[in-house]
Amino acid sequence: xxxxxxxxxxGAGLAGMRAALxxxxxxxxxxxxxxxxxxxSHSNAAQGGINAALxxxxxxxxxxxxxxxxxxxxxDQDAIEILAREAxxxxxxxxxxxxxxxxxxxxxxxxxxxxxxxxxxxxxxGDFTGQAILHVLYEQLxxxxxxxxxxxxxxxxxxxxxxxxxGVTAFDMRSGEVSAFSAGAVVLCTGGMGRVFxxxxxxxxxxxxxxxxxxxxxxxxxxxxxxxxxxxTLKSNGAxxxxxxxxxxGYLLNRDGERFMRTTAPNAMELASRxxxxxxxxxxxxxxxxxxxCVLLDVRHLGAAKIMERLPQIRELALEFAGADMIDAPVPVxxxxxxxxxxxxxxxxxxxxxxxxxxxGECACVSVHGGNRLGANSLLETVVFGRRAGEAAAAFARxxxxxxxxxxxxxxxxxxxxALVARGGHERSAKLRLEMGQVMxxxxxxxxxxxxxxxxxxxxxxxxxRYADVEIQDKGTLFNQALVAALELDFxxxxxxxxxxxxxxxxxxxxxHTRVDHPRRDDATWLKxxxxxxxxxxxxxxxxxxxxxxxxxxxxxx
Amino acid sequence: MEVHLRVQRFHPQVDAEPHWxxxxxxxxxxxxxxxxxxxxxxEQDETLTLRCSCRSHICGSCVMKVNGTSCLGCKTKVSHAxxxxxxxEPIRVAPAGNxxxxxxxxxxxxxxxxxxxxxEPYLQPDGPPPEREYLxxxxxxxxxxxxxxxxxxxxxxxxxxxxxxxxxxxxPAALAKAWRFTEDPxxxxxxxxxxxxxxxxxxxxxxxxxxxVEVCPxxxxxxxxxxxxxRRAMEAGFTDNNGARHSQAFADTIxxxxxxxxxxxxxxxxxxxxxxxxxxxxxxxxxxxGKMPLRHRRLSGAKQIRAIFAAAxxxxxxxxxxxxxxx
Lengths: 558, 327
Ligand SMILES: Cc1cc2nc3c(=O)[nH]c(=O)nc-3n(C[C@H](O)[C@H](O)[C@H](O)COP(=O)(O)OP(=O)(O)OC[C@H]3O[C@@H](n4cnc5c(N)ncnc54)[C@H](O)[C@@H]3O)c2cc1C
Ligand code: SF4
Ligand code: SF4
Ligand code: FES
Prior knowledge:
Radius of gyration of chain B: 24 Å
Structural class of chain A: alpha/beta
Number of helices of chain A: 16
CATH superfamily of the largest domain in chain B: Alpha-helical ferredoxin
CATH architecture of the largest domain in chain B: Orthogonal Bundle
Number of helices of chain B: 14
Helix content of chain B: 40-55%
Oligomer: heterodimer
Number of strands of chain A: 21
Mean pLDDT of chain A: 95
CATH topology of the largest domain in chain B: Fumarate Reductase Iron-sulfur Protein, Chain B, domain 2
Bound molecules: flavin-adenine dinucleotide, iron/sulfur cluster, FE2/S2 (inorganic) cluster
Order of helices and strands of chain B: EEHEEHEEEHHHHHHHHHHHH
Low-confidence stretches of chain B: 320-327
Largest sheet of chain A: 7 strands, mixed
């Protein structure tokens, strides 16, 4: 099949659906491709909420400042200003579409506290905010009539004679049929890449596909070393215990029952920004003040009623996977991989330097999160920059209508996939994936140093060699998930290299990136973004300036 | 611990019909059935096909039947699945019911999502939105949220008894979604929605079997939403259909005589000669077996039953029941 649309959105999470709706509203003929049905996207998992300075006593400046400070001054302030200014309208739009946000006594939107914020500006739907918004955007997608290609896996970006991005190739996962989709503009909204690490709070589909596609097409990936480790994940399976547990007043305790955040962040305590809390928790664990490799999250003092109304899902998770009922026992937790601040470098319209290619959401880096993302700013980023990217892509597509993709591009893609499936070998992708994830967690985790990073790099180079010997056991075309797993691993091996390359280059400690061999923030050398560019020998690291509009770097205290 | 699985496999291009395959895998103590399946797939057999993503019962991907009951594989612990099994008996895993199998545990979801789309699953407010948020009480949002908790996993659909015999039935998930909009103070399309769900294939096709309530991983209670939609549809005057007439006639005869008058219920539920003729053989058989007495006598305790009706109506704030309305 050869298909043509004005704008093609890859990914049907919050960013993708918001982009598609915006592009359609701007007059484009839009299609959306997703490797899962839209409501299965990982945006579902966001429990805590979405930020906006909506209250009369709050201001966008305050939201922007908190975000700049949270980012450890690595966030681009022009982008952060847009994020904070457009947040109230973005939330109201979602409310008008039908999101069932919590209300206050007067029936207005009600908010809660979240880490790193000076105001209670997190709007929420119980503890399933992401799901509640994702399903409402899906409702709007159904209403819009936008063509959705569900369970299509995108394998490559197509380029025209001038080098501009002119579409994608993708295959229908159920039938195996390969298609070429041509478009005036492509918007990548393929989400995070948590599975590069093992364990991770991310879903199994978070494999950074779009980020890798953009990298291979020659655009820069920015600040890939900035990986957020969430302070409260469960030991057994890496599942997240949302920040709302602390937002509602939960304590973090060490073995002796002390609130250890008192020493690190005497004012914000448990609600200091995530990098700060994760480091403090990891220090407790490393120095023997933990409990069985964990610290304790305690919400008992909130009482059963509040726990049941505001944190029911979190309680259920803890009950199931840690065997602890938060109503009468603390839950053991530890820092775990959660979010990739870095990604495809874009401007504030979501445009990449490659003509015709746009990106938004977790796969992009515009950058509003810099060295550390504040909780509940990511959902906000997806809708604010999803909309902007959709509009910009529609405008671009008007100036450059889609050319039909040559049949040869479809046939080439098909041949490559068939060859991959047919080839013999001695390795299994699941095994390589596990080895990659483990070395990333061990050597590229909360604390990093030169020797460990080099070891990780060597391991990754070895895994890339072994990848050539991976055999896919399923030789059919019908719903070949082994093929999908191999392609995802291929993407992740590229991305892991970029994370390590950025981490090796950045010889300072900033935000989530802590080099024990370079423990201080070094503004003189490193108030800069790292850029990774693809070469045949792996990533080449370059740098780019940070945009500073009104907030000069200061020491961060919480 | 070691887990012994027996998984239903089916590859339509290779297999004439489904067959069972056994796997033995090593998993940690807290493992779910999904974890065990993934261990089997990753370590032993990459061809084993199943959908999954979040591993924390939020994405709705992993509906399957474990030991014959529909559930999310990632919400069903191995230890729990083993509980009722004899020693040495494997955990049985099969694809969801009422949906065509694509391959192994993966089923075709097009019809499922098609039904969700059919109920016009988007807010239809009256006029343009206000400048700020709609002002609505938190209680209303909490109520709507009970159905918003639905992750469209299809466990309910897989288990629905009515769908087994009537594939056109919209089913529990889509109807719970319809309820979500009728409860939302911001939605203004109630009448339209109630009319739609009152049509054949809608709310009156549910047989009250409770299966959807029992298997729903998010406590959405689809059957209760359907009963609520019925009540509201009748209040809104959508009574000109077999289901509503049946329910009205059912209540009327009991209120009047204290027990069910099958003849009257049947004749009042059905509309027109063709429908009556269609049911005639059933009626004849019931008549011959004495299940449909020709003369329906009022029970001696009918008065007390009427008092119960009256009390129930007072409590629910409904107007008192007239005798045999619509006759
Ligand atoms: C457990 C958890 C809790 C979180 N809580 C919060 C919170 O409270 N507040 C907050 O602001 N943020 C939170 N986050 C972060 C936030 O949820 C995500 O960053 C955000 O939802 C990402 O949205 P997205 O639209 O970019 O991507 P996603 O929702 O991940 O969507 C990605 C889409 O891309 C598609 N896709 C990917 N690859 C391909 C391919 N090759 N071909 C076709 N389609 C493809 C997928 O099918 C999917 O539809 C949380 C994250 C996690 C993991
Ligand atoms: S109660 Fe109704 S909707 Fe629910 S499973 Fe039974 S027949 Fe289906
Ligand atoms: S109602 Fe329950 S069982 Fe049915 S689709 Fe929704 S969450 Fe799943
Ligand atoms: S894997 Fe998401 S619901 Fe089971």
